[in-house]
Design a protein that fits this description.
Length: 143
């Protein structure tokens, strides 16, 4: 039995106004390269049609290069996922979430932090296993 996704229960106009004014929504729209209004309409479309699945487009590297993008290699994609698993992407929360008490890597040790994760150990990294996982990737077909 498939799980039912919740439907939007508030008036669309109210949600639209809140999204347009929300700094996180503005940041996300900018980071994905969309106009704010278009991004909000896309979010509202998915909120009002919860059964709708997101669209994933697979484009050949040549088409990306022709459009001005430099696609990553398989090794770069693998390293990206390994970095994500290690928590090293550096994306972090938006600056509006900052309280001023966060640990600063530039030598501000011994300052208070309200985050609560300052003393947690980093995840173990097994480079040999990471290289083995990269070897399991299928070869890229020639286009």
């Amino acid at each position: 039995m498939s799980e039912q996704k919740p439907r939007l229960t508030r008036p669309v106009e109210n949600v639209r106004a809140e999204l347009l004014a929300d700094p996180d929504t503005q940041r996300i729209a900018k980071s994905v390269g969309m106009e704010l209004a278009a991004y909000v309409e896309l979010v509202l479309d998915y909120a009002t049609h919860p059964e709708k699945e997101p669209v994933l487009k697979v484009v050949p590297d040549e088409a990306l290069r022709a459009a001005g993008y430099d696609p990553p290699s398989i090794q770069e994609v693998g390293e990206f996922f390994k970095s994500a698993a290690r928590g090293e992407l550096g994306l972090g929360p938006p600056s509006s979430y900052s309280t001023g008490f966060e640990a600063n890597p530039s030598g501000s040790q011994n300052k208070p932090s309200l985050r609560g994760d300052g003393n947690q150990p980093r995840a173990e990294v097994d480079e040999a296993k990471g290289q083995a996982l990269l070897k399991d990737l299928p070869p890229v077909p020639e286009l």
